[in-house]
Design a protein that fits this description.
The protein contains eleven helices and eleven strands. It has 320 residues and is an alpha+beta fold. The protein folds into two domains: 172 residues, Ribosomal Protein S5, domain 2 (2-Layer Sandwich); 130 residues, Alpha-Beta Plaits. A hairpin with a 7-residue loop joins β5 and β6. It binds L-homoserine.
């Protein structure tokens, strides 16, 4: 029996412009770590690091995304023992890059690894979706499935465990900015219209289709173009981020192929095919945010095809 494991749960981008609730991308190097220890006591106990405590994450396992995912995996394993989880937050919660998903993905995989990895990831999708549902109130997979499985995934809102992996045939670098303002996902969802005209729905479907095909063809110019054509969520939500237009213009002027909100924001990301270019773009985005008196931090990241994975130490994690 293994005594202790550390698992990295990646942050993730969702929506990518026209893919509201239907597409997500797993990020490299940005995420949380969950340390799981074997316990003779049945069930799950949660401990938080300092950042987790500041964030106010609940420690009751039935109210905590990692706790629920871990409990579901223990059920799948059919064991009468339990686990202790230490959640080490690697990034700020509530930014739009899948904080609850990162924890839930890491916790689920950590419990499985602790018990000798009897389950394959494909057998655990319901468990991780249950974890994510505690935070969002719905089983939607656009953050949790990429965080758990890795890659760029199309997900189904109707059949939450169904997904399709999109091969990205080019190098993809992401400049990710986290403006220090709060956007509550619940509020940002409530702002969206309950129904849209047929014309909008058709336009949106074509934009997502074109963007996905451009990813598969490795054509980042086209990805970027379609990424900025969302007509459902982003036009409404942009008002919640006062520096939105300036940050977007700064990214495009610095050479980004496209720039959009991730999830309900306030985080925004821009894409390019070169790491150094991504760093320049990020610097311009941060400067633009600062000009609005909004402090911001950021990352340069890329596509992570692995998802939640065991790590031996914390060195892979970028910290703010
Ligand atoms: N797709 C969800 C939304 C993600 O945009 O509301 C929440 O982070």
């Amino acid at each position: 029996m293994i005594e202790k494991v550390n698992v990295f749960g990646p942050a993730s981008l969702s929506n990518l412009g026209p893919g509201f609730d239907t597409i997500g991308l797993c990020l490299a190097g940005v995420g949380d770590i969950v340390e799981a220890r074997f316990s003779e006591v049945k069930g799950v106990r949660i401990h938080l690091d300092d950042r987790g405590i500041k964030t106010g994450i609940p420690t009751n396992p039935t109210q905590n995304t990692a706790g629920v995912a871990a409990l579901e995996v223990l059920k799948l394993l059919g064991v009468s023992t339990g686990v202790e989880l230490l959640i080490k937050k690697g990034f700020v919660a509530g930014s739009g890059i899948g904080s609850s998903a990162a924890c839930a993905a890491a916790a689920a995989w950590a419990v499985n690894v602790l018990y000798g990895s009897p389950l394959k990831k494909g057998e655990m999708l319901d468990a991780v979706l249950e974890g994510e549902a505690v935070a969002s109130g719905a089983k939607h997979g656009d953050n949790i499935l990429p965080a758990f499985l890795g890659g760029l995934l199309l997900v189904s809102s109707q059949y939450p465990t169904e997904y399709r992996r999109i091969q990205v045939k080019t190098s993809l670098w992401i400049a990710l900015i986290l403006p220090e303002i709060q956007v509550l996902t619940k509020k940002a969802r409530a702002m969206l219209p309950a129904s849209v005209p047929l014309k909008t729905a058709v336009y949106q479907a074509s934009a997502l289709g074109f963007m996905v095909d451009a990813f598969r063809s490795g054509d980042l110019v086209e990805v970027g173009r379609w990424m900025m054509k969302d007509q459902l969520a982003e036009p409404v939500r942009a008002d919640l981020v006062p520096c939105y237009n300036s940050v977007k213009n700064a990214a495009l002027n610095a050479g980004a192929y496209g720039c959009a909100l991730t999830g309900s924001g306030p985080a925004m990301f821009a894409i390019t095919d070169d790491r150094l270019q991504a760093k320049k773009i990020l610097d311009s985005m941060i400067e633009a945010s600062n000009q609005h008196q909004i402090r911001a931090s950021g990352y340069v990241s890329t596509l992570n095809e692995s998802g939640a994975e065991e790590i031996s130490s914390d060195i892979k994690i970028l910290s703010l």
